[in-house]
Amino acid sequence: AEIACRHFHATARLCALGPDMEAIIGDVLARTDDVIESVGESLPRGFPAELFAVVTTGLRRAARQLERMPAA
Predict the structure, then answer these.
(1) More exposed terminus of the chain, fewer Cβ within 10 Å: N or C?
(2) Per residue, what are the HEC states of the chain?
């Protein structure tokens, strides 16, 4: 709840990924739904649907929060 975009940007600089994470964040957000779908299709038979739903609901919620996070 306390993570801000500046934390992502600082990490990007420390890891020599560039001055900020905007492109990386955008890529992650753009791929989230496709990745969830792909993982869902590859789960073994009998995998608990409730567990997958809880995890993916949390992942989608986190992606929406990241989208709304101010860039600076």
Answers:
(1) N
(2) CCCCHHHHHHHHHHCCCCCCCHHHHHHHHHHHHHHHHHHHHHCCCCCCHHHHHHHHHHHHHHHHHHHHCCCC
